[in-house]
Amino acid sequence: xxxxxxxxxVAFAVAALVCVGTTGAWAQNEAPPPLEAYGATPAxxxxxxxxxxxxxxxxxxxxxxxxxxxxxxxxxxxxxxxxVGDVKVRDLRWIGENRVLVVTSQTRGIAMLGVPRSELFFxxxxxxxxxxxxxxxxxxxxxxxxxxxxxxxxxxxxGDALFVRxxxxxxxxxxLHRIDLRTGRGRSVASMDRETDDYVLDGEGEVIALAxxxxxxxxxxxxxPKGNGFREVWAxxxxxxxxSFHGMGRTPRTIIIGADRxxxxxxxxxxETSDVLFEVNVxxxxxxxxxxxxxxxxxxxxxxxxxxxxxxxxxEDGVRYEFLEPQASRRWRSIERAFKDKAPRxxxxxxxxxxxxxxxxxxxxxQYQLVDFDRGVADSLAESYPTIAPEQVGVVRPIHYAAxxxxxxxxxxxxxPGVSEPSGLPLVVLAHGGPASQDVAGFDWWAQxxxxxxxxxxxxxxxxxxxxxxxxxxxxxxxxxRKMQTDLSDGVRWLAQEGIIDPSRVCIVGASxxxxxxxxxxxxxxxxxxxxxxxxxxxxxxxxxxxxxxQEGRNDSQTVRYWNRFMGAARLNDRALDALSPxxxxxxxxxxxxxxxxxxxxxxxxxxxxxxxxxxxxxGKPVEFIELQGEDHWLSRADTRQQMLxxxxxxxxxxxxxxxx
Length: 661
Prior knowledge:
The protein is α+β, with helices and mostly antiparallel strands.
């Protein structure tokens, strides 16, 4: 059993917590863990405390089997355990003390409604008293039992409540429904249509704000209560970047909006968007800028009241939190002192904030710990990768280097376990997806797997990545295959100058946009890499954007406008993208390429790898292509993730061996 209760407690020392760590006997010259240990889905996917903190719910994973389990913390009694099926779990939350919401997804289409294969989300409510699971929106007249957007949970005067949106196949409405927690049946409580972009509920489950977005015109509007309806109080043209709701504010009659309002506040330089976070009073319409010192990447709301109490942002050494509510601020400072240099992350807490589950993965493969402020102890709950000991985790160093045009490029270098003074190592450049994403500090299963086989691993946050401000993000617009690509090879050259790696032994690997970067590295930035591995990568940019347009049934959708901006296209079907598309440049490849793609990928269609493989074969270039059965874009399945990892390492060892050439 992964969950362990009643472990040795460690007392507070000078009002600070002491972390209970795990150790393992491992000698540097012993064989590393098998690749399956890294490619396995984490043993714990979600872990959540009940409102009282007496119960803990978690999603455990063994192979492809996911199960929900509920345990009483004080006694260790197991109250419930059941498989949730061959699905992907996307969320786990308590609804009061006796029910748990489980959100799952599957790659499915609905042919009768013309819905193409996509990732559809479903909800189930576990009733602990009856020991049964009920389907959310089940038997709701004319409404699909599919979640449209996220679910909202509130503790109302009438009891605990769950609210979700559902598609009515008769009226085409997508109303907000309150769910009968005994049957899963929904009752419409607010009328909404397809142009209803988002909403905010107050503590009683009443809608206190609506957002509308007309995709054709790009018009976004904020609507606040007036009488028995809603009135438009502010609107803006937003063809690509729309304002966004972020839940309730610090008081019950306020909401949080991220919006570009130069008339009210200057842009925050540490945000990768032009949005500023405002608190809006729904009765007066007054906008107030939130008093965060740094623009947060995400907000934190109180587990009981759902009011805003803080936020967090990803920094070079991990996630850092800034709390606006005094009690939460004091308690988190205690946790930071206790887990010094571990960059703890908040995973769950109970209603009175006396129990907090934190996660750490600095110098280890990931560990969940329960902090009990009343007892003054911290107990180890579970490990993400229990077969990988801390001694088997390679050191992750934050690095910075200059791109060709002088732009500072941050990133991380993962070293093989046991290596402290690297010299002349073989290198794998591991490019992240997105590209509007970022690599972060901590345990990365893919990077650590490659490092365990003797490779140094470079993860560069090239221009266009998130986390470094709007100017850094915008520097990536139109730079697919250009400066975004040379930002990666500039890192190779810097590591070579430092003597850390051997520049003649470098390969490039990546997934999604990183898969594109791997193929572009062999075509548009030739001469740097001995081989490339592209997982779920984009090989033909124009074809991909055209496919997105067909999927959405619109040539001028927000998604199409987004990709045209990032890729630098003037319009849909812009042939200028062909010069940046590896599938159209296959005859220039001078290194072996491995293509891997999931058949259930609904983000980057598998045709992108198929056309690259065919182009390589026609050009007489060395290529391998592996299709993963039942896998999606995110490598959600353990068996196919492990297959990807085995094939990648096999290919790297054949074309870029760790030992002498």
